[in-house]
Each structure stands twice: as C-alpha cells, then as structure tokens.
Request: fold
Amino acid sequence: MSFLINNIDQTSPKWHNQCMFKYYGKFAPYMFLLPAGIVLLIFFFIPFFQTIGLSFFDYSNSIYNPDFTGIKNYIEILHNPVFYKVMINTIIYLVVAVPILAIFPLFLAVLINQKIRGITLYKILIYLPVIVSIVVAAIAFKWLYAQDGILNYFMQLMHLPKIGWLTDPKYAIYSVIIVTIWKGIGYYMMIYLASLMSVPKELYEACEIDGANFWQKHLTVTVPHLMPTIALVSTISSISAMKIFAEIYVMTKGGPLDSTKTIVYYIYEKAFENLDLGYASAMAVILLIIVMIFSLLNIFVFERGKYKI
Reply:
C-alpha cells in the first residue's frame, strides 16, 4: 500500500483516496461489528446487569419504591421448598428429554442419509414439527391429552382405564416432555445431517471391506466423527430443557400440584403474577449459574482433548 501511495501524484484525487483508505481501513472491522454490538448491548448486556441489580431489592411491598435487601432474596430461595420442587421438575426434564433429543435424531439422520426413494418427503415430514408454532403444537396436544380426547378414546378401545395425562401429577410432566421431544427431533436431525456430510466416505468403504455390518460401520466411524456435534446438541437441548416455558404455560400452568412447574415458569409466576421482581431476578441469576455449569461440563466431558484444561 505504501509503495502505491509513494508513486502517485500527491495532488491527484487518487492519492487522496488511497490515504483515506489506509487511514480508515483499520476501523472497517469494528464498523461491521458495531450494529451487532449495539443490539447485544441493548437487548442482552443492559438487561443482564439490570437483572443482577434487581435481585438485591425487595419489590413485594411496593413495585415503585423497592427496599434494598442485599442477598436476602437468595437466602429465601434456598430455604423455599417450592424452589427445590421446581428444580426437581427441571432435572426430570433434563434427564428424560436430553438423552432422547441427543440420540434419537442421530439415529434418524443416519437412516435419512441413505439413498432411498422419497427421502425428501421423509425429511419434510420429520422437520415439519419444527416450523409449527409451539403454542399451536401445545394446544393440539392439550386436545389429545383431554379426559375425553383421542388418546383416552384409544385407551377405552383397548379396555384400559382413562389416564389423566395433564391432570395426574404422575403423568403430567412426562406428557409435556413428549411435546418438547416431538418439536425438537427434526431440528437436531438436520444438525446431524449437516455433520454427516463431513465424514469421509473412504472410511465407510474401508469398514465394508473389513466386513463390518451397518451398525458396526456407524459405531466405529460415524459416532467418533460426530462427537463434537453430539456435544453441541447435548448442550443446546440441555439449555432448552432448562428454559422450557411455552408448553407448560399453555398446557398445565405449572399444575397439577406444581408437578410441571419448572424454574423458568416459576420465574415468570413470581415476576408477572406476584410482581416480586427481586425474587424472580435472583432466581434468574441462579438459572444463569446453572446454565454456565452445564456449559463448562460440556467442555470438560466432550472437548477435554481439544482444550488443554
């Protein structure tokens, strides 16, 4: 650049443009990042620090004149039995939904990746639940789960007693989990399909020469190559399970007997129904810490060989 500038007449417009490019060019990357930075500042960083600040105040007496209480909200949360019930429900969501969403879509992706007739139709049908609004899906499943709904109709046809899918505490949370799994399978399957394209075909051919069958071929080649993607899917599905809200709001409102109330729905309940913003903000901070712990566990378990930790 300096060679070009030195060989151009300094009185010419071309020399002036080259100097301007050299001066302002180093700011170009920051100018491209500026719009995204402004959006993150307004919609993420400012609310994030405001939430931490709100967690040190008590809004239960007055929402306009809160009292500074320090860490009192955090202490009350840790002594509240409902909080532990909510955490157990959230853990149930994690334990049941995440393994299915991490493994079953991989199985589907391997099958869909084969050369079979009508494969595009199968991809569309499996991915279709992803583009359906979660509110619409929750309402549809609520009709299916109704006391006189289709599921109980088939139960009667098989001479089995009706089940309170959303009214019995033993079944309610699992009924909601089914909706989450149905909604997410297609999304995670597409992530696995994209990763399968990066697996060298020569490795599959070598396995076939060695006499490996269909399952041995994928266990020895596909799974090891897709471990980073499996880690990604596990992390995303874990965070999504901890943030579950819409299904519960539409289908159960946290009932019956708090059996489907998760931590995000409890935060909503405290903030927007009880107007206890300080207590809700403190729970939001605790949720942030839990999500960070799960993200760090993902690094330690799945990527400890990649990062020297």
Remarks:
- The chain has two domains: 2-54, 76-302.
- The radius of gyration is 27 Å.
